[in-house]
Amino acid sequence: MKRDPFVPMPETAAAKIAEDHGLVLSKVEISRGPRRLLAIDGRVAPGSTLTVMGPSGSGKSTLFAFIAGFLDPAFEASGAVLLNGRELTRLPAEERHVGLLFQEALLFPHMSVGENLLFALPARLKGRKARHAAVEAMLAEVGLADHFHRDPATLSGGQAARVALARTLVAEPRALLLDEPFSRLDQELRATVRDLVFTRIRQRAIPAVLVTHDPADAEAAGGEVIDIGEGGSRDAP
Known about the structure:
Elements: E1 7-8, H1 14-19, E2 23-32, E3 35-44, E4 49-53, H2 60-68, E5 76-83, E6 86-87, E7 98-101, H3 113-120, H4 128-141, H5 157-170, E8 175-179, H6 187-203, E9 208-211, H7 215-221, E10 225-227
Helix pairs in contact: 3-5, 4-5, 5-6
C-alpha cells in the first residue's frame, strides 16, 4: 500500500512553493549532451520515501548528485531543489543538510564505532559529556547500546549497516538519500535493517529518496515509485 505519495507540483508562485515542507524537485531535468536522462517535478512529503527504479545508466545516481550538491560538470541540470522551503540548488553540499546512506557502510576504520558518530555530530552540541551521551543514545536507538568502543572491523554486516544509519541520523539530516543501502545484506538482515531505516524516516519526518533494483525495497518504503525505464527518462505524474 502506498502512503504519502510523490505529489506533482502545482503551478503556483515561488512564495507558495516556499511554504511547503518536504523535499521539492521543481521542474528538474538532467541531461548529458543531447540525451535527457530524466525529468521530475514533484514533492516528497516529510516522513515519506520516493523510490526511483531503473537500469544502470538511467540517471538515478546523477539525480542524487544533483540533490546533494556534487553533480559532475559533464552533466547539465535545470530546475530547483527546495528543502522545507529553502532552495538548495546553489548551495555547497555541506550547507544542504542532506544525508546519504550507501551500499557500503563506509565507516572510518581508524575510529571506534562511537568516534565515527562523534565525527558526524553537529558542532553546535558542546561539551564532551553531552556529545558522548548523544552518541550513546543514538547507538541505543538502533539496537547497538554498549558498542561505543567497538572496532568497526569486528562488526557483522548488519551491525555495520546499523552504525552507518546511526552516523547518518546523528548528523540531523533534513532529507535522506538512500543509494541501494540494503543490497549487500542477506535476506533476513535486509528485512530487519530496511524496517529500521523506514521506521526512523517516518518517526523523524524526514523526506527520503531511495534508489533500488529490488521491488521489495520499494514496497517496504511505502511511498510513490518512479520507474525511469530503459529510455532513461520519466516525467513524474
